[in-house]
Design a protein that fits this description.
The chain has 441 residues and is α+β, with helices and mostly antiparallel strands. It is built from 7 helices and 25 strands. The longest helix is centred in the first third of the chain and has 28 residues.
């Protein structure tokens, strides 16, 4: 018979199934050799866990970090040993811990912010009623008949009624409406002051006063007759028919320009009152009483509740970053246990960055941002916690301005000499350990 010269197929080399596995502490994996073979000797390298002669591998009860274990199978035939790779990591255990940690921290932060928000505004204690009469002073022309309306405001009861009367000087006033009338007095040669009073109908001890300044040929009153203003609010006052000079009874409660633009000062709680004066070129005088109250939602920057609120909002912003990064890496199965403390520290980093930036706000280094508005402060603190890397860069810019200096040291170390050299490129493929060490984003 003729010889068969066709090449014989090479025998199929055995392989271990599965070729790769990822296990946590106190877990097990069955390995098999395909195709099956007899007298297989199983071993592991390094000696981390144990494997029996049936290929059943068990990880240790406790695992710290990540370790790569080779599962080796040798057969009786003259085949070279075959291997499989096992990545033993504590990542699953740490993932569960971080998830529980994040939930607890988020609940605590949410409850803390809600509680602190309700206590940001200080409790205003009771205060005695004040009757604010406006205008407090007006100059009327004595050469003509005058009809002028006065108004009164109670600091406690908007519906409070008063009784008006003329204390001295002449003229008449409606006791209920405050409408004042004075007939012309062409023979008046000197200034004349007329005093009016408004007494509360409920308690006669509550008193408000106004003064009418009669001056021949002159008239001066302040418009608009604003009674109350909020902190930082601006109003432009006018004094028609005269070239006026402006002044305030209390410079700590605001400022006024030569054009009559008044800017209310900062009042943290309660109410403060000042008198705004306008002076004419011929001695005429008009005055207005303005009560300044805190703006809605404002609170003292030095309030302990505000500081706590800032820390909580900074931590909350950091937790948003925490959640986004953590879920992304767990979902992609690329979470590295070496970043465990990175996630644990995020709420503290966010809270710390929030309080640092809050101090920067209070110092006025960030123009256009109010340090006494909880809405603005909470937003800035949360964003600083969320984008802490960018916040650090911003702080670096501020410090470069504050501590700008030229370095003229002759023995200064060359910074390039201290920088580590970049490692040479390697042809080896990336391993699972490389993935575990990737920085979260």
């Amino acid at each position: 018979m003729p010889e068969n010269n066709q090449p014989q197929p090479e025998p199929k080399l055995p392989v271990i199934s599965p070729a790769n596995a990822s296990l946590e502490a106190n877990a097990a994996q069955q390995f098999k050799l395909e195709p099956e073979a007899s007298n297989v000797q199983w071993s592991i390298k390094p000696d981390f866990g144990k494997i029996d002669q049936d290929g059943f591998y068990t990880t240790p009860e406790k695992v710290t970090g990540s370790k790569t274990v080779l599962v080796i199978a040798k057969t009786a035939e003259n085949h070279p040993p075959v291997t499989a790779t096992v990545q033993v990591t504590d990542a699953p255990e740490r993932i569960r811990f971080i998830a529980k940690y994040g939930i607890v921290i988020a609940i605590c932060l949410g409850a803390g912010i809600v509680y602190t928000w309700g206590n940001l505004r200080p409790k205003i204690t009771s205060r005695p009623e004040l009757l604010i009469v406006n205008p407090q002073m007006v100059t009327l022309n004595a050469s003509q008949d005058n009809v002028f309306q006065f108004a009164v405001t109670s600091t406690l009861d908007a519906k409070s009624t008063v009784n008006w009367s003329v204390e001295e000087g002449g003229g008449e006033i409606d006791s209920s409406s405050g409408l004042y009338k004075h007939k012309k007095d062409p023979d008046l040669k000197f200034d004349k002051l007329i005093k009016l009073s408004a007494r509360s109908s409920e308690t006669s001890s509550r008193l408000g006063t106004a003064v009418v300044h009669l001056l021949a040929g002159k008239h001066l009153e302040i418009q608009p007759q604003v009674t109350t203003m909020l902190s930082s609010q601006q109003v432009t006052f006018r004094a028609p028919n005269a070239t006026s000079m402006w002044s305030l009874s209390r410079s700590d409660l605001g400022s006024i320009s030569k054009d009559g633009v008044f800017t209310a000062g900062s009042v943290q709680h309660g109410m403060d009152v000042l008198q705004l004066n306008a002076w004419g070129a011929s001695g005429e005088h008009a005055a207005l009483t303005v009560a300044i109250t805190p703006a809605a939602g404002t609170v003292s920057p030095s309030s302990p509740n505000m500081l706590i609120f800032v820390i909580l909002c900074g931590s909350l912003g950091s937790m948003v970053y925490f959640t986004s990064s953590f879920v992304n890496y767990v979902g992609n199965r690329t979470f590295g246990s070496t970043w465990f403390w990175f996630y644990i520290s995020r709420p503290f980093v966010g809270g710390g960055m929030g309080i640092i930036f809050y101090f920067v706000l209070c110092s006025g280094k960030l123009i256009g941002v109010s340090a006494d508005d909880p809405m603005t402060v909470g937003m800035v603190s949360a964003l600083v916690g969320l984008f802490s890397d960018k916040a650090v860069i911003k702080l670096s810019d501020i410090m470069n301005v504050l501590l700008a200096a030229s370095d003229t040291r002759k023995d200064k170390m060359d910074e390039g000499a201290t920088k580590p050299q970049a490692p040479k490129a390697s042809a080896a493929p990336p391993t699972n350990a490389d993935k575990d060490n990737k920085k979260p984003h």
